[in-house]
Amino acid sequence: MGDVMIRMLAAVLAACFLIVVPAPAAAADDERMEKLFTFKDPRITESSGLAVSPTHPGIYYTHNDSAAAPTFYAVDGEGRTRATYQVRGAEARDWEAMAASKDPRTGRGVLWFADIGDNLDGAWPDVSIYKVMEPQRIGDATLPAVRYRFRYADGARNAEGIMVNPRTGRLYVVSKEFAGSVYAAPKTLRTDRTNVLRKVAAAPIMATDAAYAPDGSSYVVRTYFSATLYKPSGETIARVAMPQLEQAESIAFTADGKALLTGSEGVRSPVYRVPLPARARAATSPSAAPTPTPSPAKAESSLDARADGPAADGGLSLKDVLIWLAAAATAIGVITFIARRTA
What we know:
Layout: H1 2-20, E1 34-38, E2 49-52, E3 60-63, E4 71-75, E5 81-88, E6 97-102, E7 109-115, E8 127-133, E9 141-144, E10 146-152, E11 159-164, E12 171-175, E13 181-184, E14 195-202, E15 207-212, E16 219-223, E17 226-230, E18 236-241, E19 248-253, E20 259-264, E21 270-275, H2 278-284, H3 296-299, H4 303-307, H5 318-342
Parallel strand pairs: 5-9, 10-14
Antiparallel strand pairs: 1-21, 2-3, 3-4, 4-5, 6-7, 7-8, 8-10, 11-12, 12-13, 13-14, 15-16, 16-17, 17-18, 19-20, 20-21
């Protein structure tokens, strides 16, 4: 009977989670989402991070989730593995996300791997993100990593998303919680001390990944059910409908910034291309609203500016809290009914 109760409890909690998820987002305008490719490599069983190569056209990078070696894969547009890379000097405790950027001085690609999963919300005293220079040729290799350790200014938490602002090089972590937040890393990362992540904005409930647009005009946060596009200030632009996936884990922008790529865990898991809605493209287009250099007052609204000032508040709105309380009350009622029937 105990196993039955556990299964029923899991079902109730799943239903409770669905209740707090916002209404479905509007579909992409004029264009339809399409399956770009399926990972063909049987070793890619839990694709948790996804990034578009900054320097090799048609190449995508991914890595597996926890319980895996510090390994990542270069995949082509047909889903075929073109190269396998081992990361020297890295651990893979719970790799949950990756990001790609360019070194502004050399133009060389930079890959970031986030060992930030913490399902116990405080099991680890710190988390790590590894910086790896993108290989100059696509072929199996072992690459050295620079390790940066991090802790949250407001206490340990679980996270599954990272992103890098291409205009400033600032690194961000997005927590996976009911009261999720965007955390900014210091402007200059240190290897000789633990870097402090500071809250700068709120994030959607249970975020599983995040990414910055190639031109820095916006960023996106993925959840299990949809994605939300934001201005660099943290202001919401639009929500974008996502394809139904087994376990939505990753998101990235296409190289031209006109669409999103999203993937899932699982063997032979697919990667979909989702065009941005027309209103989102208009809001983020550099030519849509040419403006002069922002004033200091406006600059303070950016996430980068907030990162150097006081920590920002973030989390659930009053509406979210009320919905969650109603869902919790429903769950408790169902559990109590089941307990009485099985006593």
